[in-house]
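Aim 2 progress update. The chain analyzed this quarter is reproduced below.
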Amino acid sequence: MIRIKFVTILISILLTFNSNAAFEIKARTAILQDYLSGEILYEKDPDKFIYPASMTKIMTSIVAFDLIRNGDLTLDEKFLISENAWRLSSAGYSSMFIMVGDNVSVENLLKGIIIASGNDACVALAEGIAGTEDEFAIMMTSKAKEIGMENTNFANSSGINNTKNISTVRDIMIMSNYLIKEFPEEYKYFAEKEFTWDRTGGDPITQGNRNPLLYKNLGADGIKTGYLAVEKYSLASSVYRNGRRLIAVVSGFNTKNDRSRESAKLLTWGLTSFDLIEIAKINIPIENIDVWHGKKNTIDVYVKTDIYKIIPKGRKKLLKVSIIYNGPIQAPIKKNDILGKLKVAYKNEPIEEYDLLAFENVKRLNVLSRLMKSINFLIWGDV
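Predicted structure tokens:
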């Protein structure tokens, strides 16, 4: 028979403020995502094409991180600085201030890109990895397509003026999510507030991180600012607070102050207007269900993904989770057999469902034991 179990989920409500339903920010285009659930909390024309400016450098870093993870590049490997890279170490450009003929480590170039937003470091890294910046840009665009950035084309490694260097805030969000998920250790570079480059032929230069949110009491730990005259000010940012992470990407602000203030406003709204609820964790048993004619009377079930849901503040009672299966389940059972469904509903409307998998093998009883079990059931109704 079909059996339904209503599951009592251990709910961790992370924040306690009231949400603001009529919310708006002054960006031309914006998006806000809850990282754990993947749900979009706010969007404003998120698929409008933008020039990503220095947010491009997130992908420049990802390509390098990928190569390091695969063993094709190391942090202490050094690249010879070309005149082409050095020419960006001048007034009017964000620079690390590398010199022609320097041999600079990959780690220092990455810090120069991530913290100091050095365009010269971008070109040096691109040339060191791919031979030319054009070839490196092809690698960047290929990676973008691989991770689901459907409306992005990278034409250079730095994001400086090029009409073929285009993206959307939604794609920048996808890229930022990928960075944080796939490279949690490397992502820590984005939270560093300053970088000192012991340059050739001069005193060391210390530069601060250009992300204004790192200096506010928000829990921000990244990601990257951007500016082009045609695009104005943009920012990809992330905060981590009380076990919860949000990612925001905004573009089209007229001033730096607008970018800082409105980005903080968006992130704060996301943190205070919604509750994050943990429903299940990957590969961890969440319930046990009845077994028939097995050497165990019950079996644990689990799901193959983390399940988190975001709901408006104060509405947790409207979220219901149920386990549905046709049981008791007949033994033998193999690990990872699909035994039922976990269903999530909000306001009695289905949201999603997930396969429930067997956590282990359960062998079948021998003939005599099965016979006795059946007799007990007929007499006593005991499964």
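The chain has eight helices and 18 strands. The mean pLDDT is 90. These observations will guide the mutagenesis experiments scheduled for the next reporting period.
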